[in-house]
Amino acid sequence: MKKIIRFFVILIILILSSALAFLKFVLPKGSNFNQEKLRPSAEKKVEEPQRVQTKDVFKDNQVLNILLLGEDTTPTRDDPEGKYKGRTDTMMLCSLDPKEKKARILSVPRDSRVPIPGHKTQKINAAYAMGGVQLTAKTVEKFLDCKIDHYVIVNYNFIKELIDSLGGIEVYIPRDYKKRDDWVIPALVIDFKKGWQTLNGEDAVKYLRIRDIYPVPDIGRISAQQDFIMSIFDRLKSPRTIFALPKLLDIVDKNIKTDLNYGQIAYLGYWGLGINRENISTGTIDGYGKKLDDGVDYWIVDTEKARSKYREFFQQEKKLPSATEELRVYRLGKDQDGTNPIQTKEQIEEKAKDRLKGKHN
């Protein structure tokens, strides 16, 4: 559905949740960690101890692939109580390389038309409604000829609470934008003016719902998502963040679901805090938008080209352009310092304007 959350700070969620678990050691009861497994086994379930011992999640120092999904339970006119949990419209595959100390994030457009195992060829985000995270993971594995080790799922409320806890986010709006959507409950009302705006969590979610100002809506939105991830990453690694840890832990625990257990999360936290933003690369599955005879708009992808993109991106030998070589659109709060440097306002504005022209370097 087109009303759902438009972006994902999922890599950051993983790193943040890991760091918090590592620092606090004891997670609250009722945690969403250690959810259903991607590949259920007949082994008897063993309760996790309250005091966490770090556990190496990397097997023989091999690359770890984590499927990052966004789940939306926003009440709508046909689901006023928000009980339907089959909506997900953002999908990223995150590869963590322990040898090179690198993270790579490949975005899969939600409208990608692919075969879903046991079902017909349709939009890839339909897999979640049909079979949850297990079918979604299986679909991505078949599509890209890869193996997924774990998953992380977030809901949009995480974004709202995270931004508020960090003191807001300053963004550049490339043009005036108004929109009203009465399908969601309560109605979504967006009214942004061109220029620099400091947004709270609720307004940040509204801003990230915007897609129709871009020539290629989903791809423009994905580009914004990836830049947003890098800015969040900078802020979370700032020493200032330590004072917000108790609140952040609660936010993470309420709003994410994952099959990673406590020990694995703690280990990833320790590992993730050592990553530099220069070692984080982002990419997107190529394709083109087209409305087919069934009247549905799809992102048409070539399976072989998509698999080639996956191999080149995740198994690359040459260094990809780093995130710091790109211009950044977002600035968090107003307490920037040497721990998370930003580009000039002129550079940031220029990149935001480029999005309107369909440029996503």
Describe this entry's structure for a reader.
The relative contact order is 0.20. Helices cover 32% and strands 20% of the residues. A hairpin with a 4-residue loop joins strand 2 (91-97) and strand 3. The protein is of the alpha+beta class and 361 residues long. Helix 3 packs across helix 4. Mean pLDDT is 75; it is low at 1-29, 42-52 and 317-342. It has one domain (10-39, 47-356): Aminopeptidase (3-Layer(aba) Sandwich).
Q: Tally of extended strands? A: 15
The stretches of 5 or more residues where confidence is low (pLDDT under 50) are 1-29, 42-52, 317-342
The fourth-level CATH homologous superfamily is LCP protein
Beta-strand proportion: 15-25%
* Shape estimate: globular
**Rg over C-alpha atoms, rounded to the nearest angstrom:** 20 Å
* Overall helicity: 25-40%
| Biggest pleated sheet | 6 strands, mixed
Known CATH architecture: 3-Layer(aba) Sandwich
In DSSP terms (H or I, runs of 4 or more residues), the helix count works out at 9
Q: Determine and state the CATH class.
A: Alpha Beta
Output the strand order for the largest sheet. Answer: 11-6-1-2-3-12
By helix and strand content, what is the structural category? alpha+beta
Alpha-carbon distance between the termini? 27 Å
Overall mean pLDDT stands at: 75
Pattern of helices and strands: HEEEEEHEHEEEEHHHEHEEEHEH
- Using the coordinates shown, work out and report the CATH topology: Aminopeptidase
Give the total of domains.
Answer: 1
